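User: Modeling request: complex.
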Amino acid sequence: MLKKHSPHFHDDWDPESARGIIEQYKGLEGPLLPILNALQERFGHLGDPAVRLVAEILNLTRAEVHGVVSFYHDYRREPAGRHVIKVCRAEACQSMGCEDLVGRLERALGIHLSETTHDRRVTLEEVYCLGNCALSPSAMVDGELLGRASEEKILAAVGEQA
Amino acid sequence: MSLHTGNGFEVIDRGTPERKSEKQVTLEIDGQSVTVPAGTSIMHAASLAGIQVPKLCATDSLEPFGSCRLCLVEIAGRNGTPASCTTPAESGMRVSTQTDRLARLRRGVMELYISDHPLDCLTCSANGDCELQDMAGAVGLRDVRYGYDGENHLDAVKDESNPYFTFDPARCIVCSRCVRACEEVQGTFALTIDGRGFASVVSAGMNEDFLDSECVSCGACVQACPTASLIEKTIVQHGQPQRSVITTCAYCGVGCSFEAELQGNSVVRMTPYKDGKANHGHSCVKGRFAWGYATHKERITKPMLRSSPKEAWREVTWDEALDHVASEFKRIQAKYGRGAIGGITSSRCTNEETYLVQKMIRAAFHNNNVDTCARVCHSPTGYGLKTTLGTSAGTQDFDSVNEADLIMVIGANPTDAHPVFASRMKRRIREGAKLIVIDPRQIDLVRTPHVAAMHHLQLLPGSNVAVANALAHVVVTEGLVNTKFISERCDPTEFEAWAQFVSREENSPEHVEKISGVPAPELRAAARLYAKGPNSAIYYGLGVTEHSQGSTMVIAMANLAMATGNFGRNGVGVNPLRGQNNVQGSCDMGSFPHEFSGYRHVSEDATRALFESAWGVPLDPEPGLRIPNMFDAAVDGTFKGLYVQGEDIVQSDPNTQHVAAGLEAMECIVVHDLFLNETAAYAHVFLPGASFLEKDGTFTNAERRLGRVRKAIPPMAGMTELDVICKLSTLFGYPMHYNHASEVMDEIARVTPTFAGVSFAKLDELGSVQWPCNEKAPEGTPVMHIGSFVRGKGRFVLTEYVPTDERTGPRFPLLLTTGRILSQYNVGAQTRRTPNIVWHDEDVLEIHPHDAENRGIREGDRVALVSRSGETSMRAHITERVQPGVVYTTFHHPESGANVVTTDYTDWATGCPEYKVTAVEVRLTNHESSWQERLDHLHRIQRIETVAAE
Amino acid sequence: MSSSTTDTLVRMANDISNFFRIQPEDQAVAGTADHIRRYWEPRMRAKMAEHLTHGGSGLNAIALKACERACKSVSSAPIYRGGT
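Assistant: Request completed. Predicted assembly structure:
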């Protein structure tokens, strides 16, 4: 379901291509989510131009589209970094030290949760339950599940030093 | 908003909408037995039993939502505590609305709300009118165990961008009423909830300021908001109102019912009245917020005189002013003849005032030189519908649209000009009704969120009748005629002649395509859709009537509706969207030069005898002068005195030069109005008028519905129009005296059969009434022509397409058409004097990119707009809403001079000006036109010399 | 009255007749005449009558017949000069 994160950046916005994607899915019943998924897949985020274009073609208001986009954590309004780290903070992972792990990552990268490093290389996010509790603490890096996660393993996966 | 208590008009919020059903259910709530239609919520049922279940997210103008969790109840035999707003009542249920468990749960919910809410009730602008406050009291909240130091939204930033209301997210409880009101009631969908959980916050657009978002400032959200989160700036400034008066809006022909809420003699808020049958508790930006013009500093409150328009105005007493008018008019009559004076009644003044003006002209002036602004807007409606059906008015009420399956909008732009009705229409379309739009311009309705026309016949201005004939051609030649209806209700010979006529080749869609630009397949599809129904309704506006074939087009539409059997029930009909708040009433009251009240010709002996007996004087049997002919006669030297009530003919009538020439040729012009307008620049006497807040009377809206106008504040000029007309008539030699407007209505009822049952007492009792209201229909007539037409058999009349004389050519290759915008009203006399300016502070010319490019015009450039009649200038706006070859503008600002360029071509039957078709050229310019420079000068020299204080 | 007013009246009469011209001729003339009688103020009909005495130029065939029917009976409207 979750595709491997591919690094597309905000200056990649291409209205023609976006329009093509929207036209492709707009005939579905309940086309909004498939369209948003596809646009995010292609552009890595759903910025103002995307919201406006979707609203225009589906004959919705930008308020409505914005409401949907802002509701789901996985829809980004701004592009993510080259790499996305998601650390699980649910109960099983908590019991196995994920809070400490989060703290270490924040210090190592110099950012807080939900932020992206200055050089746009890494985004750090929290998730609630990857369903990998037996191998807590768990994390997901660029869409790949990582069990028994540690600061070193995660940073290595994104090409950083601990 | 909580319960309104004002003048005894208490309105209870039952939490969820009323439901209609054949089936009834009986249940027990707190021991009381209640019977309700199936589908009614427990909350609503409880309310009918006098039990108000605590609630925050529920309100009966909106579908239930179930988010606040305050309205929980217990149902015997069921687990849990369901929400009473989302749970339908069922037979045999036993419900408890108050138990210890419920009390604890409700207190718990309130604790959570209050833990994230400012604790400044005493200084909050909603103090005294806050449902959160009420509910905290109702559930017995005593402390908040969570404390107030946790995460909260107290430092959220206010949005004060909208001129009329503030949005303060710190006070928001995310009940979503505002979002739902914007969707369900207004249909604009401008609001959403951004985020989720604790981070949820109301967002206009993509987290934009309200003013920048898609919001149209209708105020439905402000009305729905239970806290001070969305609140009127006037309430913030002045505090809560203490009394209210139910009255009717003075803007458009929807005629929304309002509660004028006051402190002392100041209006602090206008709230749509929930039981208003025209608006059902909704309104638009103008009625709800733009009422400040009534007390604007430019209001003239003293009568003024001057011996010539070149002099400064001199303030005088009422006696002096009225004596002068009477003596001048008498002098003019003595010198030039009985027909040398006349008057124009206002379509914005009440029925009673209008009736008295036409009575004064007929009984005191002894002529029929009376006319009204309907001349320039819907007079073809009167002519066309009277000819075909027998009544000079629309056939349905607004609620009829709820049962329409196919809606055809012709030459109207309801989302801008009749917004409250448009919201209702859009709601019906969201429910599945199909839409056809016939308009040269891509109006909003063609494609707006959640609404899209199945067919937009984008015809060239001036080709209406050709298109209508082509639609009829399809209906007849493809066998879509409703033969049963026609055989029962129409003349068969006339129908045959008509059927043969429309079947001719020249009326085929293929032939008409060359004239109108509408592709034949589109037209055929639209015709089939209309004929299919089952309930097809036509709604139309000035894009039909303001043409040289305006009356012809009205007849054509009525014929189309008859041919397909679309009369005599809900969901169908031919519906004119009448513009002014009382234009229907003004026409009903006999403001036309050829008709007494109730549309009876002055030459009809029996009618005239009735009035001669009622009024005690002989009356002129010949038709009088219509407005454009008054100017002709003035230029010819036989018409010299004019009384103009509440209308700015210089700005709103076509061919300004012609109007000015007429006025300049007259010897005594009396303007009776709220402000010094363009016409006043030519006047000798100015009588200060009274706004709708300052008088008693009635207005009649586009549904033939008479609504009460009730005095909320004393007249600023000391006299209402009623007083003034009586006094003037008396000075003229025909004494008139009425103690109260109700006495005038009683007289109207005595002399007008369609109004025989109308009285202020009945209006107080029923709220409003649609004429005909008499013995046959004591409570009025929502839908007309049920069973048979008023004239008996419906008439089919041949409607040959006659092209207008106004043709494009090398010098004037483009066609100009005109229209309106939501935030401004007509000539802008009222709305330009309110903060509505923020949305539209100038009229612009809409031009297609191709036409603009060919002329080197870019967005915002000043362009000259030139026609055979004259020249003006304005800024250009490049858009594809208009097709190549067509340009468009509005006429809300006098400086735009739209009527300097319009022609004096008119509808053949009524003289209604052809505003909608003018051949023009557009070119870049770097200065105003000479007309505009003269206007600037004219504005600057209008001075008033005030009476020096003693 | 000026000639421009006459031009206006001629145009009005022609416009009215153009609506009725699709009907059989006598109906068209009757319809046009009736309309003029119902809606034209006496001065307007008197002015048209005057124009007819000078030949009625500019009027189309139906309008001419209709004006003769509807306007000739109205004199120069003495009631409109000198007195209430």
